[in-house]
Please model this.
Amino acid sequence: MQKTLSLNKLYSQYTEGSLDRKKFEGLIFQAVLENIRHFNPYHWKREDCDDFVSWLYPRLSKAVDSYRDTGASFETFIGAVIRWSAKEYRSRMADNKVAEYATWTLRAADLYTGQIEPEYSVCESPSEAEYPFLADPSAPDLRKTPRQLLMLILKCYYYVSDDFLDRIAPMAGIEKEYLKRMIDKLRELRLKHDQELSDMKERIHCQFFRCIVYEKRLAAMPENSAAAIMMKSRLQKARIRLAAMRKRLAGIRPDASNRQIAEVVGVSKGTVDASLHAVKARWNNFFDKSILN
Model:
């Protein structure tokens, strides 16, 4: 194949000083770009070749300094650099496609399951159809004990949304904005803890995707090959780490401490302890009786 530019001739001109470094590198890039199919062992499409050459450019620049005339011509040396780089590039692209496939496969599942929106009741309070135990006159009614209900709301602040505040504030006998300020104060007090919880969840998501990627890579490798054995070991370690991370997450409590609730409400910790203990005792007693019946 006739090349538009001879790399050997260009190198001679560069070493003689008739070409400066910047122009020399530009001409090498032009020659490789115009004749990339001469070096391409994978029969890539034109757009893939262009992406590869753009990725390759910094290595071509370093190859000029690395070349030593030990019998092989400069053109042969550049050809070897391109071929070895093409193998690495192809391997990286394969890994990226595996990761992209795993990510979008799981994302598609999330989108599919998220298409069906749950129907929420338009009434101001929960209905007996949704919660049959409300029909039982012996069931505890926290609306009759607004202080206990307030303590319970603040205890579960992590799960409270603005929509929920609209419905629960009247039951607690407190204005929504005042209740929201108390919850915001709790979140401020627990900012570091909540950030740790969020970071842990994010790391678990990343580790989960990492396991999926390892599984896909392992499935594409020849069985019992050295690479497959190594990948299987990495997958096992990744799964063990994922299980340990999930166990650690389960041990991180998202609820506020009674001392923090007391600080926000402006009461003693003993008052909060007593209120929450009373709520727990009433509901445990109710469900124990329901089971016996």
About this structure: Residues 111-124, 128-133 have pLDDT under 50 and may be disordered. The two ends are 91 Å apart (CA to CA). The longest helix spans residues 74-113. The CA atoms of residues 203 and 240 lie 14 Å apart.
